[in-house]
Amino acid sequence: MPRAIALAWGTVPSPQRGPKREFSLDQVLDAAVMLADADGIDAVTMPAVAQALGLTAMSLYRYVSSKETLLLLLQETGMGVPPESIGQAKGWRAGLEAYAEASGAVYRRHPWMLDITISGIASTPNNLAWFEAGLAALADTTLSREERVAVVLQVSGHARFRALVERGYADRADEAGEQLSGIVLSEARLLGRLVTEDRFPELHATLGSGALVDARFDNFDFGLARLLDGVAHYIGPTVGSHASPVR
């Protein structure tokens, strides 16, 4: 087992030799999270974390052996455990809605997590607990195991993309010193000058209708609802004709 994974699971024994450690691994990771929350993922370097703790950079290697290990544990810490609201929801749909909302809350709390590349299924306990929560929401459905995984990945991806877009707009509004609504209106005015009816007829009509600036309509809520409608339809009476048996 890679040492980084073992550290996440708490299965690495404490060293019996050498000077006593001044901090716990959790304290090291809390310092790293504070740096990331304040200045983004690029601010989390071995020297910066060491300085935040009053350690030398070399001393930090007694806790984490590399930058890669630090980032893996940082993501695991930022993710935290899934809230009980997911498991307490009534029915699979409410469970997945709670899952999407809770996932979005994590990204809003720690937006730097959107900058960590997804390279496979994380093998750390908190990340696996989230995966388990999503699958558990679908446990009483007739979906196959493969289909449940696919649905959880779609809901997770929806929550991540929503958070990515919302962060981009929020950052842009902060940089411009404007309200988000002002940014949206500025975009619409620019598009109004660029989009002609002969070249982009549907987009031109959409702009003319005001659909792109209608704050009453939430594109992402609508998208998630339709995604779950599709799953509900698939689970319905015709599911047996195109779904493999639950395994």
Q: What can you see in these coordinates?
A:
It is a single chain. This protein is an all-alpha fold. It has 2 domains: 3-79, Homeodomain-like (Arc Repressor Mutant, subunit A); 84-177 and 217-241, Orthogonal Bundle (Tetracycline Repressor, domain 2). It has 12 helices and no strands. It has helices at residues 3-9, 25-39, 46-53, 57-60, 67-79, 84-88, 92-109, 125-137, 145-176, 180-194, 201-209, 219-235. The radius of gyration is 23 Å and the shape is flat. Mean pLDDT is 90; it is low at 238-247.
Summarize this structure briefly.
The protein is mainly α and 247 residues long. It has helices spanning 3-9, 25-39, 46-53, 57-60, 67-79, 84-88, 92-109, 125-137, 145-176, 180-194, 201-209, 219-235. It is flat, with a radius of gyration of 23 Å.
Architecture blueprint of SSEs:
Blueprint: H1 3-9, H2 25-39, H3 46-53, H4 57-60, H5 67-79, H6 84-88, H7 92-109, H8 125-137, H9 145-176, H10 180-194, H11 201-209, H12 219-235
Tell me, what's the shape?
flat
End-to-end distance:
28 Å
Determine the fraction of residues in helical runs and give it as a percent range: 55-70%
Give the overall pLDDT as a whole number: 90
Low-confidence stretches: 238-247
Under CATH, the homologous superfamily of the largest domain reads Tetracycline Repressor, domain 2
Beta strand count: 0
Following the backbone from N to C, one meets helices and strands in this order, namely HHHHHHHHHHHH
CATH class of the largest domain: Mainly Alpha
**Tally of individual helices:** 12
What's the CATH topology label of the largest domain? Tetracycline Repressor, domain 2
- Count of all domains: 2
Query: Strand fraction band?
Result: under 5%
Radius of gyration using CA atoms only: 23 Å
Biggest sheet features: none
